[in-house]
Design goal:
Layout lengths: L3 E6 L6 H10 L2 E5 L1 H9 L5 E2 H5 L14 H8 L5 H10 L6 E4 L4 H5 L6 H6 L4 H11 L5 E3 L5 H11 L4 H30 L12 E5 L11 E4 L12 E4 L5 H14 L6 E6 L2 E7 L3 H11 L7 E5 L5 H8 L3 E6 L4 H7 L6 E4 L10 E6 L2 E6 L20 H14 L7 E4 L4 E5 L5 H12 L7 E4 L7 H9 L3 E4 L6 H11 L2 E4 L8
Parallel strand pairs: 1-2, 1-4, 2-3, 4-5, 11-12, 12-13, 18-19, 19-20
Antiparallel strand pairs: 6-7, 8-13, 9-10, 9-11, 14-15, 16-17, 16-18
C-alpha cells in the first residue's frame, strides 16, 4: 500500500504524539520539523525530517526550513488533475494529504510583561502561515488541522471512510483562515503600537469566543460574547463567575456599565445599574454604608438591576442584598459568609474582577451597518479638566464633594444627562432625553425635597438658562457643567441671581 503523507509542525504539542501515532496506524508517513520531530520520535512515532524531503538543511536559526517547492508543491498540487500529477512526478514531489500546523506563540510571547521587541519579532511565524494558507486553499484535496480539538473528528473520519468528508475539510479550512487572520491581526496591532500609529489606514481587530448567548437584546436576536486577546484584565470580559445562571447579552452590557462607573471611585462605593444607566450610586466608609446610599437613591429602579462594589462584599452587605431581586453582584471578592448567603439565590450571578489590576487603554469600537466607529474610551476626569468658577459665589467644601460625585457619575449616563447628588450619593438621574431641561426635570423630580442644598451635574453645556432656573427653584445650590455655550452669560447671570455656585470644566461627556 502506498503510504499517504502528513506534515506536522506544531508549537502547541498537546495530544500531538497520540494524533501522529494514530495517523501512522492509518497508513500515513509523518514529515516533521525541529521540536515537533523530536517530540514525535521520543514518543515512538516514525518520523521523517523536513530536510530529508527538501534536500536542504534548516538554516538561519530555523527561520527557513519549509519554504521549499518539495513542500509547497505537495501542498498546492491538484492531485485530481493529470497535469499536476505529471509535474509532481517529473520533479519527484510527493503530495501531502494532511497538514497539522499551529503557529509560533506570538500572543503568549507579547503577554509577558518584560518581553523585548526582538523576542516578539522572532516569534512571528512565517513558514507556518504559508503552509496553513496553502493547505486551506487546496482543501479539496488536503485536510488541514490547526486546532487540537479537531484531532478526534479527523481520525474518526479517516478510520471510517479512508478520507475526511468534503464538508469537514471546508470547515477546517475556514478555521485555518480565521486562525491566521487573528494571528496577523495581533501582529498588526503590536507593530502599529510599536510604530506609534494612532489612525492606521486599516484597522484589524480580533476577538475570541467567550460564550454563545441564549439570545441578544431581545429573544428573537442571536448573539455571542467575544473577548479581546490580551485585553484589559480589569473588565467584564475577564470576570470570574462564582455562582448563578449564565450571563445574557443585556447582563453583560449592564455589568460593563456598572464596572466603568465604580472604577471612578477610590473610596468604598456601590453602583446600581439598570439598562446601562446608573439608577443609584453611593459612597461611604464601608460597602454596607455605600450600598444603603445607592439603594436609597432609587429603591424602585434597583429591582432587577446590577450592583457593582469596589470592595469585598461582607456578610452584613450580603444579607441586605439578599432581600432584593438582583441580576448580578460584582465585586473584587466576597467573604465566605457573603458567599454562603448569596449562593442561596439560585439565579443570582456573582462576579469577581481583579480591582488591583490596571485597566489597559483601549479603543471603544461601535458597529454601524456597513462600518465601525473607533474612539478612545472617555478617561477624562476632573484632574485633567480646566476648572473655572464664573459665578460670584464659589462652591463650599461640601458642595465641591457633591459636584465631584455628580461629575463622576454623569459621565456614564446616556445623553442628555443630568445628575443631582450630595457628597456621598446620587439623588436623582435624568438620562437619554432629547433636551437638557427635560433631563433636569426628571432628575429634580426624582430628588424631590433632597434637591434642597444639593449639587447638579450636566454632561454638556446649557444652551439656555432654563436648566439653571429649574435647578434653582428645586433648591440646588451648586452646578457643574462644561460651559462653552454662546449663551453662557445668561446661565451665569441666572445662577448669580439665585446665589448658585457654578463650575465650568471645559470638557463635555456625551454618551450615546
Amino acid at each position: 500500500m502506498t503510504k499517504k503523507r502528513a506534515l506536522i509542525s506544531v508549537s502547541d504539542k498537546n495530544g500531538i504524539v497520540d494524533f501522529a501515532r494514530e495517523l501512522t496506524e492509518l497508513g500515513f508517513e509523518i514529515v516533521s520539523t525541529g521540536g515537533t520531530k523530536k517530540a514525535l520520535a521520543e514518543g515512538g512515532v516514525p518520523v521523517i525530517g523536513i530536510s530529508d524531503v527538501t534536500g536542504f538543511p534548516e538554516i538561519l536559526e530555523g527561520r527557513v526550513k519549509t519554504l521549499h517547492p518539495n513542500i509547497h508543491g505537495g501542498l498546492l498540487a491538484k492531485v485530481g488533475e493529470a497535469g499536476h500529477r505529471q509535474q509532481l512526478e517529473e520533479h519527484g514531489i510527493t503530495p501531502i494529504e494532511l497538514v497539522c500546523v499551529n503557529l509560533y506563540p506570538f500572543q503568549q510571547t507579547i503577554s509577558k510583561p518584560d518581553v523585548s521587541v526582538e523576542d516578539a519579532i522572532e516569534n512571528i511565524d512565517i513558514g507556518g502561515p504559508a503552509m496553513l494558507r496553502a493547505s486551506a486553499k487546496n482543501h479539496e484535496y488536503i485536510t488541514v488541522v490547526v486546532d487540537p480539538e479537531d484531532y478526534a473528528i479527523v481520525i474518526e473520519e479517516f478510520r471510517s471512510n479512508g478520507k475526511t468528508e468534503a464538508a469537514t475539510r471546508r470547515r477546517l479550512a475556514a478555521k485555518v483562515y480565521r486562525h491566521t487572520a487573528s494571528y496577523d491581526a495581533m501582529i498588526a496591532e503590536y507593530m502599529t503600537n510599536l510604530a506609534g500609529e494612532e489612525n492606521p489606514e486599516k484597522l484589524t481587530v480580533t476577538y475570541e469566543l467567550k460564550q454563545t448567548l441564549r439570545y441578544g437584546e431581545n429573544p428573537h436576536q442571536k448573539a455571542s460574547f467575544y473577548r479581546k486577546p490580551l485585553g484589559s484584565v480589569f473588565s467584564i470580559a475577564n470576570a470570574e463567575q462564582l455562582h448563578g445562571k449564565e450571563l445574557s447579552y443585556n447582563n453583560i452590557n449592564d455589568a460593563d456599565a456598572a464596572l466603568q462607573i465604580v472604577k471612578e471611585f477610590d473610596e468604598p462605593a456601590a453602583v446600581a445599574v439598570k439598562h446601562m444607566n446608573p439608577c443609584g450610586v453611593g459612597t461611604g466608609t464601608n460597602v454596607y454604608e455605600a450600598f444603603l446610599k445607592a439603594f436609597e437613591a432609587d429603591p424602585v429602579s434597583i429591582f432587577g438591576g446590577i450592583i457593582a462594589f469596589n470592595r469585598e462584599v461582607d456578610g452584613e452587605t450580603a444579607r441586605k442584598l439578599y432581600e432584593i431581586f438582583l441580576e448580578i453582584v460584582i465585586a473584587p471578592s466576597f467573604s465566605q459568609e457573603a458567599l454562603e448567603i448569596l449562593t442561596g439565590k439560585k439565579n443570582l450571578r456573582l462576579l469577581t474582577i481583579p480591582f488591583d489590576q490596571e485597566g489597559k487603554t483601549e479603543r471603544k469600537l461601535t458597529s454601524i451597518e456597513g462600518g465601525l466607529l473607533a474612539q478612545e474610551y472617555d478617561a477624562y476626569g476632573l484632574k485633567e479638566a480646566n476648572i473655572s468658577v464664573p459665578t460670584k459665589r464659589e462652591p463650599t467644601e461640601a458642595e465641591w464633594e457633591a459636584l465631584k460625585l455628580g461629575w463622576k457619575v454623569v459621565k456614564h449616563v446616556k445623553s442628555n444627562a443630568i445628575v443631582v447628588a450630595d457628597k456621598d450619593s446620587t439623588l436623582g438621574i435624568g438620562a437619554g432625553q432629547m433636551n437638557r431641561v427635560g433631563a433636569a426635570k426628571i432628575a429634580l423630580e426624582q430628588a424631590g425635597a433632597k434637591a434642597e442644598g444639593a449639587a447638579l451635574a450636566s454632561d454638556a453645556f446649557f444652551p439656555m438658562n432654563d436648566t439653571v432656573e429649574a435647578a434653582a427653584k428645586a433648591g440646588i445650590t451648586a452646578i457643574i457643567q462644561p460651559g462653552g455655550s454662546i449663551k453662557d452669560a445668561d446661565s451665569i447671570k441666572k445662577a448669580d441671581e439665585y446665589g448658585i455656585a457654578m463650575v465650568f470644566t471645559g470638557v463635555r461627556h456625551f454618551k450615546h
